[in-house]
Design goal:
heterodimer, A: mainly beta, 5-stranded mixed sheet, 58 strands, 45% strand, elongated, B: mainly alpha, two-stranded antiparallel ribbon, 42% helix, 3% strand, disordered N terminus
Chain lengths: 1155, 542
């Protein structure tokens, strides 16, 4: 149909040659993609009298920036038109220009096609001339706000218009019986008789479900329609994220996207999060399985390794979720092949709000939330108090191995200077629960936005004040976000900036200490450690009061996070766009930790905890990370016949630099300054610099807008690799998408089928799990050096124990994905499914070598596969009682599993890894990664516990008896959300169910200290160990019926503690994750245009299997200072520290006003 | 015009690619970290001090101090591996069988750069590390150790390793003897042991050779080999470490940088500066372990040995008369110890705590090294020894007694014990060793009829020598004591742990291999057969 392309009036053959040349060259450089569209909202102003249509369209093309294609048969030059339009939209301008001519236009993406009117009948023309009535109306959204830019067309004709800033539209001379078709992306198209529509307000119903024409940002600012994609993407609106959320973007994404597993891992003010998209692709100790974040087109990345990934996770806390317009998630290597190793774990694209056309809008939002510890699930023994059988302190021990509570007054701790003991009622209290505060967060946001034809402006300001669960913990944060966009002719410049500064004040994490206290200790009575006799350091019953610990040991820090990028795009020709986007990410952290000095009175030294006085301490830490990046993209578009070809080629440059400085000192007097140091302060400086660059190309070929094929290639050079190994890996991918009803016409006749698409993709990418400097032998300066020796400076370096491996290659990951999207009954039911299979055949394993082996301690030494299914079902609405009330449902279900296929023989099929807290996991050949190495009691072949023949006691297995059980990553993750709307009232409920995995709770401490509920078995009276056997003289196992344990207290339960199988628990849970009710007001006049208020709760109810007596399997640590380094993101989450809390519940309310 | 623009993409790409292809390589070469060196800029002088401090004998011999009856935790919490002998791999906290790659790297780097002095020292230190490990676990990786092409090094026979170590010492002696100082920069500074004194190095090499030969003395089939090697030592003419000549290191221990003597930092109970370690699992601090064990203490008391107050400090808080004690202790009552493996209930025996028991010697007195500092611990800035002059003299005495070396056996014995008194500075002025000799002479005279002390009164001269060697090594060289104990058929008679949870009734002969080896190097470790720590012998045991 469209066999003549582009410039006007050239000979056809010539064009063909040029076209072929251009195509060949473009394919040769393996570039591709779809046209990057800057902003195309330009307004058109034209005044012509009797001009040729050709020249008029040329002017429109220039002003709009759209590409024009002309059907060969059209006789543009012969047509003369007169027109006068000002500040018109493209559609308006075209309508005016083509008015009365036998020509029609079609807008497809950024392409305008002009063709002859084919169906133009006599009747049509007649209808047009019978200008019967004028129609005026207003189009509004479901909240009664005007919809700007909605298309209103007259059915059966080519007449259409666009609503203005007030949502108003008008037609003149419309047939009375005409039908108006009102459409807007994201809303259900409505058909209303013209007569009825006149002078009325038309309310549009949102159809989030209609993904057919939804465009998504697929990276590097490239927008694509979902139907062009051969892989799955998901888009979540900012509103969904903030609905029941107090300020963390990732928290708001939990359960919103199938295949994306997000876990809140701590109860901190800025919680530690883990995010895994489609499980893991690598199981090495240093593997990074975290997705790449893109913020307004620019990577929010500090590098490709684990610590950089953690930095990016922390950086997300700097972004105010209220400024987020939407989040697009590209789930796998298939969608992200163009990103190379950066995107192998998926890409999360954050786009902030932009100025909305029309009146300037000022938005104010305030949010208050309250979080409490959920003690409903806490279990501990509440029958026995202080004492110990085994350790050296006997009855002075803080452990819970004493006698049973009897309500009497008992002495605790050591005598004071007068020889008197503190007397405390020996009975259970829940004092420890009261130790934790209600964590309060107050967040206020103000935003200003506006835009016009050539520019847009959005300024977001945010301020957050927070207190933590631990007494004294507090934090505040101020955010500023600025997005401006301006078009100067062919040039478009967009600036995105976000700056956040937060101050925090944290105490030591005492959760473990508090829950280890015997339950009769009235812990909240020791608040006044200055004046209260038994709370003072000298007299507190065991060490010093937790309140004094909190007050004496503070870490105050502040973080500055800044990200900015400028996207400059120029479109010298309709077929060519050049876009360059340099950006910077900076994060700087400063903290100062202080510890007050303690001087104990001599008599206090009877408590061994008080044997030594301590100096005042100070430690200072400064870290800064700066990431520079530049993305250059050259995009072209070509249309020939039934084919549209888009190409993109580009280059990325990344530089990451981080620097840490720290110093710590003991001080002469409590003036917290390094200058008062007693000794030379401990100093440390570390810096890491890494760089990468890449070239990539991509082409997308579309046939008749129904079959699409995309090819991608990329080569990468990374400084982290040894020189010999650099730049030798080429990554590539292909994907295809087919719109079925367009291909198989018979499907079009099925009334119930709205659309159906099939997708397939293949990508060969890599996971750059190589740490900086990993390829070289390194030596590090030892502490305490240099020293002067024999009159000269003496230095001492030691080797970093890892043996280097210059041959190390990035992990090659091959991904396949197949899926389909089906919608029925006019998009009322949408079903999407995807299957993926990823294979990593060169997993980098950082391993413990054999004793004294000099072999590289890191190698490509394993094969791994990861696969799963994702199902999304949307019923929108499920039921609709009238226009005013409807209920819709969304269900998501994902299955993920993986398997270790091969390990270098050295591991004998068993690869051990360790998370930062020291917990070990195992990847076993033929099994899923990871499994827990649990120690059980020694058992006979029938599985009965072997006890000692004389004392009846069981023994834990030895340390080297490998006994693998459980699995670390969830196999099933699902969510169900229910949305209820009635007039201006809406209600959302989201429930999450996750299962098919285990969690290893730290039980050693609670068995050791005697707080574990199992320690009350048989009231700590000796009993016959259940299901046990003993070995008789002949070596046979004989069922034990009468040998009772010689001790049913600390001695016995120490072996329970060593048998950590008692902590291995099913991680399954069902949570009422979100509950939100909202009410909206719209005001026709006055200062305030609209208001809404909402009340929400998070994690209101949690249900666990009966066997879980330990608490929330998500939390791995408690509130307070972070004592360990950033966790390896795919390993953490399998086991809890002592300090993990049993769970939390959050409630909050929000008030929004729009001016 | 437009036709030219069609080539714009090439132009842009070309402009980008050309500079990148040329500048790219250098732009990417950023393997730089201000705190670290890489293979390119490492030199032996930057490595030697660490290898020397990493070779001191006190580093991980705490287990042997306790097994050999010298030390003991003052309350011996029950159930820990060291007391039960259950699960005792040659890894921390017992004995770190891991030999850092630094030693091999120092040797390799020195050879590459022609720094022969450094290379010779690297060989000596390698000998020290390997022989200690062989003495603890017998067969182990040696020839294939630190080879970057070998994933799972095979285990060499302990005897083979010993013989090769002797060859390494031969080579080291030649390298050091012929080393030109110009090729060995800063050796006088970085050699924190002998400051580049070649004579002392050669003496140390000979003494170390003698130690290795003495270890295998109990094996009659080694007589010919030993004779041959002794002849080589004699031929070298360098002799052995003499009186006052300690192979000990001191990089310049100081308070300002918290760089303290290892022994002081870990074991002094009069240490306000820190430096020790703490096992959160058992709650045991390193200085908790450095308290008297009644085995060696009662020997000292029985012999009325003046070194009692030099190996141990008097108690800070004495036992009040009539107060309960878990077991009676001989006089003097201001020196008290604990029994290894006996858990003591504090609520019953109130006076069995840290300050009621003797800490490791002299520590109550000295914080800085002065000529007057007596005892083992002479201050935070004291040198840490790799081998003491006391050991050298005892080794020579044994060699003379065995007829390997010429000399008077009795005189050699007396010199050795006297050296112990001097080393401990019994006389109170290290500049005047004769003061210490006087103390010895007086005591020796007073014990004329004591067969454990007096040469003439002793029925078995060899046992006398070994008994006094045991006494002299108290808190100083327990690993060698354990070696002597094993090669001499469990002499002297040291009781095993009394922990009721112990799994054997004798002191183990060896430590087990690391658990990890059974996973990552299973074929080679399993080829060593089943290891029983109570019965599997080290190759040199008779």
């Amino acid at each position: 149909m469209y066999n003549n392309i582009l410039p006007f009036g050239r000979r056809r053959l010539y064009h063909k040659i040029v076209l072929i040349m251009r195509l060949t060259t473009v394919i040769l450089i393996a570039s591709l993609m779809q046209v990057s569209a800057a902003s195309f909202g330009q307004r058109i102003t034209l005044k012509k009298t009797n001009a040729s249509l050709f020249s008029v369209l040329k002017d429109i093309r220039k002003q709009s920036g759209f590409d024009f294609y002309y059907e060969e048969k059209t006789t543009l030059r012969d047509q003369k038109v007169s027109l006068s339009i000002a500040n018109a939209t493209l559609e308006e301008a075209l309508s005016v220009a083509l008015k009365g001519l036998d020509l029609v236009y079609e807008i497809d993406g950024k392409i305008v096609s002009i063709k002859n009117k084919e169906t133009s009948s006599f009747l049509d023309r007649l209808t047009e001339r019978l200008a019967a009535i004028d129609v005026r109306g207003r189009v509004v959204d479901d909240k009664n706000s005007p919809l700007v830019g909605a298309t209103v067309s007259i059915k059966g004709t080519d007449r259409k218009t666009i609503t203005n800033e007030n949502g108003d539209f008008s037609f003149t001379g419309v047939d009375e019986k005409a039908i108006l078709v009102i459409s807007f992306i994201g809303y259900q198209t409505q058909e209303i008789p013209a007569a009825k529509a006149n002078a009325s307000t038309i309310k549009m119903e949102a159809t989030v479900s209609d993904l057919k024409e939804v465009t998504v940002n697929t990276g590097y600012g490239i927008e694509k329609r979902t139907k062009e994609l051969g892989y799955s993407v998901a888009k979540v609106t900012g509103e969904e994220i903030t609905r029941a959320n107090s300020g963390n973007i990732l928290t708001g994404l939990i359960g919103k996207v199938s295949g994306v597993n997000i876990t809140t891992q701590s109860t901190d003010m800025t919680p530690q999060m883990r995010i895994l998209i489609r499980g893991i692709r690598s199981f090495g100790q240093n593997s990074n399985n975290q997705p790449l974040f893109i913020f307004n087109g620019s990577p929010l990345s500090f590098g490709a390794d684990q610590s950089a990934a953690q930095l990016a996770m922390n950086f997300l806390n700097n972004i105010d979720p209220n400024d987020i317009e939407d989040v697009t998630i590209l789930k796998g290597a298939n969608g992200t092949a163009i990103y190379g190793p950066e995107g192998v774990n998926g890409v999360i694209i954050l786009t902030t709000k932009k100025g909305v056309k029309g009146q300037p809008v000022i938005n104010f939002r305030t949010n208050n939330s309250f979080q409490i510890v959920d003690f409903r699930r806490e279990s501990r023994q509440r029958l026995f108090g202080t004492g110990s059988e085994l350790d050296v302190f006997g009855n002075k021990s803080p452990y819970s191995w004493g006698p049973r509570y009897d309500g009497s007054l008992v002495p605790i701790g050591y005598a004071d200077e007068k020889g008197e003991f503190q007397m405390v009622p020996y009975e259970d209290t829940k004092e420890a629960h009261k130790f934790f505060n209600i964590a309060i967060a107050n967040r206020n946001n103000l935003s200003f936005s506006n835009s016009d034809a050539t520019s847009s402006f959005y300024l977001g300001l945010g301020y957050l004040r927070q207190t933590g669960l631990l007494p004294g913990d507090k934090q505040n944060q101020a955010n500023i976000l600025l997005n401006v966009n301006k078009t100067f002719g062919l040039l478009n410049i967009q600036l995105n900036m976000n700056y956040a500064r937060s101050n925090d004040d944290r105490g030591p994490d005492l959760q473990g200490e508090i829950t280890s206290l015997p339950s009769f200790i009235p812990v909240t009575k020791y608040k006044d450690y200055v004046n209260d006799h038994w709370s003072q350091a000298n007299n507190y019953w065991n060490g010093i009061s937790p309140y004094q610990k909190l007050a004496d040991n503070r870490t105050k820090g502040n973080t500055s996070g800044f990200t900015a990028n400028i996207a400059v795009s120029i479109k010298p020709f309709p077929w060519l766009t050049i876009r360059d986007q340099p950006g910077i990410n900076y994060t700087g952290y400063y903290s100062k930790s202080t510890g007050a000095p303690i001087d104990y009175a001599p008599y206090a030294a009877q408590d061994p905890n008080k044997a030594f006085d301590s100096f005042a301490r100070v430690s200072e830490k400064m870290t800064s990370s700066t990431a520079l990046n530049n993305d250059l993209l050259i995009s072209t578009v070509h249309k020939m016949g039934n084919f549209v070809l888009r190409t993109n080629s580009g280059n990325t440059i990344r530089q990451n630099f981080s620097k840490d400085l720290s110093a710590a000192a003991s001080l002469v007097i409590p003036v917290y300054n390094l200058a008062y140091t007693i000794y030379t302060p401990q100093l440390r400086e570390d810096a890491v610099l890494s760089r990468t660059t890449s070239f990539f190309g991509n082409t997308l070929l579309g046939y008749k807008d129904r079959v699409f094929l995309e090819l991608t290639g990329r080569n990468e050079w990374d400084s982290k690799q040894a020189v010999a190994s650099r730049g030798k890996t080429f990554y590539y991918g292909a994907n295809t998408s087919v719109v079925l009803p367009d291909v198989i016409p018979v499907l079009k006749d099925l009334k119930w089928l709205t659309t159906a698409r099939l997708r397939a993709s293949y990508a060969r990418s890599a996971n750059m799990n190589i740490s900086p400097y990993q390829s070289e032998r390194r030596l590090v300066l030892s502490g305490g050096y240099p020293i002067v020796n024999n009159g000269d400076y003496l230095l001492n370096y030691t080797l970093i124990s890892e043996n280097p491996n210059p041959r190390l290659q990035p992990e090659k990951v091959i991904s396949q994905e197949y899926g389909g999207n089906f919608s029925f009954l006019n998009n009322r039911i949408i079903f999407d499914l995807a299957y993926y299979y990823q294979r990593n055949n060169s997993v980098i394993l950082a391993v413990q070598n054999a004793w004294l082996s000099g072999y590289p301690s890191t190698d490509n030494a394993g094969d791994f596969e990861n696969y799963g299914w994702e199902f999304d079902l949307k019923l929108m609405p499920l039921v609709s009682f009238s226009n005013k009330m409807n209920i819709s449902v969304q269900a998501k279900f994902a299955i993920n599993d993986n398997k270790v296929l091969y390990l270098t023989p050295v591991y004998k099929g068993l690869f051990p890894v360790r998370d930062p807290s020291g917990q070990g996991y195992y990847a076993r050949e033929g099994h899923s990664a990871f499994e827990f190495n649990v120690r059980d009691f020694k058992r006979d072949p029938q599985g009965r516990v072997i006890v000692d023949r004389t004392n009846g006691m069981p023994t834990a297995q030895g340390y080297n008896e490998v006994n693998l059980q459980g699995r670390l990553l969830p196999k099933y993750v699902s969510s169900l959300s229910l949305n209820f709307n009635w007039k201006k009232f809406s209600m959302n409920i989201q429930a999450d169910y996750t299962a098919g995995y285990d969690h290893l709770f730290d039980q050693y401490t609670s068995f050791f200290t005697g707080t574990h509920p199992l320690t009350t078995l048989n009231n700590r009276e000796p009993y016959v160990f259940p299901n046990s056997v003993y070995k008789d003289d002949s070596g046979n196992y004989v069922e034990n019926k009468d040998i009772v344990v010689s001790n049913a207290g600390q001695e016995l339960y120490q072996s329970f503690g060593q048998a950590n199988i008692h902590g291995l628990t099913s991680g399954a849970f069902l949570k009422i994750r979100e509950f939100a009710v909202q009410y909206d007001w719209t005001f026709r006049s006055g200062l305030i245009k609209g208001m809404s208020t909402s009340l929400y709760g998070r994690d209101l109810f949690s249900f666990y299997p009966k066997s879980n007596i330990n608490g929330d399997p998500g939390f791995i640590k408690g509130p307070g200072q972070r004592t360990i380094d950033a966790p390896a993101n795919n390993l953490s989450g399998g086991s809890s520290e002592v300090s993990a809390l049993p769970g939390t519940v959050l409630m909050g309310f929000t008030l929004t006003a729009k001016f | 015009m437009q036709r030219y623009f069609k080539f714009l993409p090439f132009l842009v790409l070309g402009v980008l690619i050309v500079p990148l292809n040329t500048g790219c390589k250098k732009w990417l070469d950023v393997n730089y970290n201000p705190k670290e060196l890489t293979d390119n800029n490492a030199t032996p002088d930057l490595l030697l001090a660490g290898c020397l401090t990493g070779s001191i004998s006190a580093a991980d011999t705490r287990f042997a101090q306790q097994w050999m009856g010298y030390w003991c935790h003052f309350q011996s919490p029950s159930g820990i591996a060291i007391q039960t002998y259950n699960h005792i791999p040659a890894t921390t906290p017992l004995f770190d069988g891991y030999i850092a790659p630094d030693f091999a790297y120092l040797e390799q780097k020195s050879r590459q750069l022609g720094a022969t002095y450094y290379e010779g020292i690297a060989k000596v230190l390698k000998v020290l590390k390997w022989h200690r490990a062989v003495d603890v676990v017998n067969n182990m990786p040696y020839t294939e150790a630190f080879d970057s092409n070998i994933l799972q090094p095979h285990y060499d026979d302990g005897k083979f390793i010993y013989e090769d170590l002797m060859k390494q010492l031969d080579a080291a002696a030649i390298l050091i003897k012929n080393a030109a100082m110009v090729n060995n920069v800063k050796i006088n500074v970085t050699d924190i042991m002998f400051h580049g004194d070649k004579v002392k190095w050669l003496k140390f090499i000979n003494t170390l050779k003698l130690r290795l030969l003495i270890h295998q003395a109990g094996r009659s089939d080694r007589a010919a080999y030993i004779a041959e090697e002794i002849q080589k030592i004699k031929n070298s003419g360098s002799g052995f470490l003499g009186t006052g000549e300690n192979a000990s290191v001191n990089p310049g221990y100081n308070l300002a940088k918290q760089n303290l003597s290892f022994y002081f930092g870990y074991f002094s109970n009069n240490n306000p500066y820190g430096g020790g370690d703490y096992d959160p699992f058992t709650g045991i601090q390193s200085n908790n372990v450095a308290h008297a064990n009644i085995v060696a203490m009662n020997f000292l008391k029985a012999d009325n040995d003046p070194r009692l107050s030099l190996f141990y400090s008097p108690v800070e808080v004495p036992l009040p008369p009539g107060e309960r004690e878990p077991f009676p202790q001989p006089n003097p009552q201001n020196f008290r110890g604990s029994e290894f493996g006996r858990a003591v209930d504090n609520s019953t025996y109130w006076y069995q705590q840290s300050f009621n028991l003797s800490a490791v010697g002299g520590s109550a007195n000295n914080t800085t090294v002065t000529p007057a500092a007596r005892g083992i611990i002479k201050g935070y800035d004291m040198a840490d020894w790799i081998m003491t002059s006391v050991e050298s003299l005892f080794l020579q005495a044994e060699a003379i007694q065995r007829g390997w070396l010429p000399g008077d056996a009795e005189q050699a014995y007396l010199d050795a014990v006297k050296e112990s008194f001097r080393w401990l500075n019994a006389g109170g002025n290290s500049n005047v060793p004769s003061l210490s000799d006087d103390i010895f002479n007086t005591w020796y005279a007073s014990q004329a009829s004591n067969p454990s002390i007096n040469w003439n009164a002793a029925p078995d001269k060899y046992k006398l020598l070994m008994y006094q060697k045991y006494m002299a090594f108290n808190g100083i060289e327990p690993l060698e004591t354990w070696t002597d104990y094993r090669r001499n058929g469990r002499f002297p008679n040291i009781p095993a742990s009394v922990d009721p949870a112990r799994i054997g009734n004798t002191i183990p002969y060896r430590l087990a291999y690391d658990d990890k080896e059974y996973v990552v190097n299973a074929n080679n470790v399993n080829a060593q057969g089943t290891i029983n720590v109570f019965t599997s012998k080290i190759w040199w045991m008779p």
